[in-house]
């Protein structure tokens, strides 16, 4: 007797999702809970955590933003192995603006985000015509080589970097700024990717030649997606500059490229929420594993491999399926 | 000084070609971008070092053991990881990158860094060409580069397996109908690429020392050479290694050694700006990039 697993949408999903006639609190809660949990979690956690874990929450939000930025690029068909490029350029922009020109941090942040995004887009403009692996290879190389440029030209403090950069006014502004940015990016960009505009981006990933056939200039759209994603990562970089009150060559380090990819892959590529879930799992985990030092990156590497092979859909898709559907074994006719 | 720069440019090009040829071979045949390439290079170097210094095997035996071990590791990586994600470029890249990262950072964690971690040179002597001192090891690397290129060319043109390699590279489905098992050939190509990385490590490492950061360096150099030359094209690899090799030496001599790494970045951006498929990347141009 052969059996197979059958998946059926839960009744409440059908009622709440498709018919749009919400009759009970239970149905409204069913729709709201997945959205309210991250919002309330991120807004309330800073109030109950101690100082140390507030810092951890801060880096969770930062890496979640980087992972979201990676995922936006991935959804447009560009696999970046060098988020550190965007992060580093944003960090340097903000550092220079506050350190050399004396701008207040709250003004330098948005300007650095846009400027960093613009610079990253210009950096990658020649390689936008490449796709798939080719694009990844170039993005992997560029941040590692920019380190050498900083080293060789000794600009912006050279190997020592710029220290003593003005911090943000208070700890609470710091925390709620990054958490607010994360929530805005999470829900805003999800909306953007669901709109017609996002549809074009996803189509470029699926089959770029047919998008060209439709008379759409894919390079223009790719450049836009690149600008959006890199501005987001540059904002994170600029923000972290003010948190550490330092900017230097470590901003181009491999960590900032690897962790976001690991977060997005573990959480579930293709959804911004997945990227956030991944960051929420991986960053505290790496704090707990701080004792083992360099071995952490080994674990990230292995995590990547295990998830790619064993659970390629990622944790978020898995949870989403369990939430919306139930499974049962049926006999094959 | 000018003659010396020319000679060292030539030797540097040979080093680059030896580094890049394995990566290029794997990608050209199976389309797998092996981002664990640098890790394989370092892995075989450490393995030789361990066998030679800790187990005190003769050097030739250590090398003869470490190259096949690296090849086996490559084959295992293909069989147990890459096979399951074959054809999904993103997953392949992330999986190989994760493996490479894990290997390199493991060595980093174990603390294998320092000048004592190096392999012995085969011929510890040097000769004078004009007024430039050239050590034999570098000449050996140049010889190995020449032999490798010639050997690979003969292999892919005159042996059954080599022809099967090219068949898979040209059209996987047609090759399948002719009885060429594409998974097996792709596994062999990954394994052979890793073996070439191990061979490269054996001849190049004696010029410096072994360290995990060298692994990233090798990967980057191999990528740079392959991207400029056009991925999957052996002729492109040779021309690109000459290009970067000479450009690096000339900037080193006439500008400053800080700028050497930047040369390849500038070269990549320039070449890709004008010719997105690299200098010789004609093969599959339309499908791989637009």
Strand order of the largest sheet of chain A: 1-4
- In CATH terms, what is the architecture of chain A? Orthogonal Bundle
Strand content of chain B: under 5%
Q: Could you tell me the number of beta strands of chain B?
A: 2
Radius of gyration of chain A: 21 Å
Tell me the helix content of chain A: over 70%
- Could you name the ranges of chain A where pLDDT drops below 50 across 5 or more consecutive residues? none
Largest interface: A-B, 48 and 45 residues
Oligomer: heterodimer
What is the SS-derived class of chain B? Answer: mainly alpha
N-C termini distance of chain B: 44 Å
Order of helices and strands of chain A: EHHHHHHEHHHHEHHHHE
Dominant shape of chain B: globular
Domain unit count of chain B:
1
Query: Given the structure, what is the number of helices of chain B?
Result: 12
Low-confidence spans of chain B: 286-290
CATH classification class of chain B:
Mainly Alpha
Protein architecture, described:
- The complex is a heterodimer of chains A (333) and B (290).
- Chain A is mainly alpha-helical and 333 residues long.
- Chain A has a single domain (3-331), classed as ABC transporter involved in vitamin B12 uptake, BtuC (Orthogonal Bundle).
- Chain A has helices at residues 11-19, 25-48, 51-75, 83-99, 105-124, 133-153, 171-194, 196-206, 208-213, 218-244, 255-267, 272-288, 295-310, 314-324, and strands at residues 3-9, 162-163, 246-247, 325-331.
- A two-stranded antiparallel sheet of chain A has the order 1-4. Chain A has a two-stranded antiparallel ribbon with strand order 2-3.
- In chain A, helix 3 (51-75) packs across helix 11 (255-267) and helix 4 (83-99) packs across helix 10 (218-244).
- Chain A is globular.
- Chain B is mainly α.
- Chain B has a single domain, classed as ABC transporter involved in vitamin B12 uptake, BtuC.
- Chain B is built from twelve helices and two strands.
- Chain B has helices spanning 2-30, 37-54, 59-80, 89-110, 136-158, 160-170, 172-177, 182-204, 212-229, 234-254, 260-274, 285-288, and strands at 126-129, 132-135.
- Chain B has a two-stranded antiparallel sheet.
- Chain B is globular, with a radius of gyration of 19 Å.
- The model of chain B is unreliable at 286-290 (pLDDT under 50).
- Classes of the chains: A mainly alpha (333), B mainly alpha (290).
- Chains A and B meet through helix 6, helix 9, helix 11 and helix 13 of A and helix 4, helix 9 and helix 11 of B.
């Amino acid at each position: 007797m052969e059996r197979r697993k059958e998946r059926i949408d839960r009744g409440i999903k059908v009622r709440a999702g498709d018919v749009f006639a919400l009759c009970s609190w239970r149905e409204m809660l069913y729709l709201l809970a997945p959205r309210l949990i991250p919002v309330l979690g991120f807004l309330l956690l800073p109030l109950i955590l101690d100082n140390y874990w507030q810092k951890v929450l801060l880096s969770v939000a930062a890496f979640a933003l980087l992972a979201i930025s990676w995922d936006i690029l991935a959804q447009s068909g560009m696999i970046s192995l060098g988020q550190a490029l965007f992060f580093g350029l944003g960090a340097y922009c903000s550092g220079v603006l506050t350190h050399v020109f004396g701008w207040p941090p709250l003004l330098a942040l948005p300007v650095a985000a846009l400027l960093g995004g613009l610079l990253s887009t210009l950096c990658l403009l020649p390689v936008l015509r490449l796709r798939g692996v080719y694009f990844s290879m170039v993005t992997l190389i560029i941040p590692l080589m920019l380190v050498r440029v900083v080293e060789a030209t000794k600009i912006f403090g050279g190997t020592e970097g710029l220290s003593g950069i003005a911090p943000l006014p208070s700890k609470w502004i710091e925390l709620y700024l990054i958490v607010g940015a994360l929530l805005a990016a999470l829900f805003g960009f999800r909306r953007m990717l669901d709109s017609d505009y996002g549809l074009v981006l996803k189509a470029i990933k699926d089959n770029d030649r047919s998008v060209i056939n439709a008379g759409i200039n894919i390079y223009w759209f790719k450049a836009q997606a690149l600008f959006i994603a890199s501005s987001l990562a540059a904002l994170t970089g600029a923000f972290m500059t003010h948190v550490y009150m330092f900017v230097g060559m470590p901003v181009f380090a491999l960590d900032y490229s690897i962790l976001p990819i690991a977060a997005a892959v573990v959480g579930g590529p293709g959804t911004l929420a997945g990227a956030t879930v991944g960051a929420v799992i991986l960053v505290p985990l790496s704090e707990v594993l701080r004792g083992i030092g360099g071995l952490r990156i080994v674990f990230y590497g292995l995590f990547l491999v295990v998830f790619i092979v064993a659970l390629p859909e990622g944790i978020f898709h898995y949870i989403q399926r369990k939430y919306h559907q139930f499974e049962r074994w049926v006999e094959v006719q | 000084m000018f003659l010396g720069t020319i000679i060292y440019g030539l030797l540097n090009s040979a080093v680059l070609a030896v580094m890049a040829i394995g990566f290029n071979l794997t990608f050209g045949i199976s389309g797998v971008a092996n981002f664990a390439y640098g890790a394989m290079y370092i892995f075989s170097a450490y393995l030789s070092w361990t066998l030679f210094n800790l187990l005190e095997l003769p050097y030739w035996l250590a090398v003869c053991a470490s190259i096949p071990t690296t090849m086996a590791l490559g084959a295992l990586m293909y069989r147990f990881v890459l096979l399951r994600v074959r054809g999904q470029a993103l997953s392949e890249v992330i999986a190989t990158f994760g493996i490479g990262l894990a290997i390199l950072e493991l060595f980093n964690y174990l603390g294998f860094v320092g000048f004592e971690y190096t392999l012995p040179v085969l011929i510890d002597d040097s000769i004078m060409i004009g007024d430039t001192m050239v050590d034999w090891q570098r000449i050996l690397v140049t010889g190995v580069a020449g032999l490798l290129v010639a050997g690979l060319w003969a292999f892919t043109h005159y042996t059954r397996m080599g022809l099967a390699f090219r068949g898979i590279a040209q059209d996987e489905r047609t090759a399948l109908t002719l009885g060429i098992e594409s998974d097996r050939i792709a596994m062999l190509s990954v394994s052979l690429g890793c073996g070439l990385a191990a061979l490269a490590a054996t001849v190049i490492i004696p010029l410096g020392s072994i360290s995990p950061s060298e692994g990233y360096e090798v990967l980057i150099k191999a990528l740079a050479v392959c991207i400029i030359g056009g991925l999957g094209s052996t002729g492109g690899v040779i021309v690109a290694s000459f290009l970067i090799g000479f450009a690096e030496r000339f900037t080193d001599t006439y500008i400053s050694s800080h700028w050497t790494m930047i040369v390849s970045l500038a070269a990549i951006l320039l070449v890709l700006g004008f010719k997105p498929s690299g200098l010789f990347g004609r093969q599959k141009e339309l499908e791989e990039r637009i």
